[in-house]
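The data are passed on as follows:
___
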Amino acid sequence: MIGVPFDGMGRSPGQAGAAQALRAAGLAAVLGPDAVMEPDLVLPGPVPQRAVGSGLLNERALLQMVDSLYRRVRASLSAARFPFVYGAALKHRTRRLSWPDAVAGSRDVPCLG
């Protein structure tokens, strides 16, 4: 289980509080005793401004989140575990997922399946 305390708008806590709230509500117990609870990703503090050049909101945290999450998912897969990711917000559109709220509406990624 990989907690992602990220808010695409750079608010505090905003959506970044979702991972902790889900744990406090008993998420691990619902998934059962075989669920491996890992520490949340460690991300820089939120910045509710667009970065110069890219125009991304909360850019530093977004980039670190993507890199850290990639590494954690790879480690889970290498250990033959399902990488259950929770806390990060994605917008859902009919059969498409968009990038986190920091870039929502600028790029869409097709859903698999």
